[in-house]
Request: fold
Amino acid sequence: MTIHCDIAPVDQIVDLRHRILRADLPRESAMFEGDDEPTTGHFAAWQNGAVVGCVSIMRRPLEDQPGWQLRGMAVDAGLRRGGVGARLLQLAIDHIRSHGTPTILWCNAREPAVAFYQRQGLLIISPRFEIPTAGPHFKMMKRIE
Reply:
């Protein structure tokens, strides 16, 4: 089964975000501040017409450095470890590079996702911290040239 990855409108990815990342919360919790900003990029993976993966990136500084925050990364459980997340992350990085300036990609990574992000070249830059609605996290980053 072929999986296609590309830019997506946010309304096509909110249901997957909610199901994977915010299932115990109202659907509105899967809509993020910044989703509608003109520089925000949303990307999806489709299989047989269904969204099976997603990620968004938003211009957000990291401390005093220009940056992009990766948010709402989710892949259907049955497709994890199959390259879908890596393909989506590469689309996000290509979007960042298209804006032309060296910058930082950063995220608040859920503890179970840290190894994935490390394989993609992100580094842990904070102690473990808790997000009350989502559990333990680490702040991670990668320089994008």
User: Anything to note?
Assistant: The chain has a mean pLDDT of 90. Strands lie at 3-7, 41-47, 50-59, 67-75, 103-110, 123-124, 129-131, 135-144.
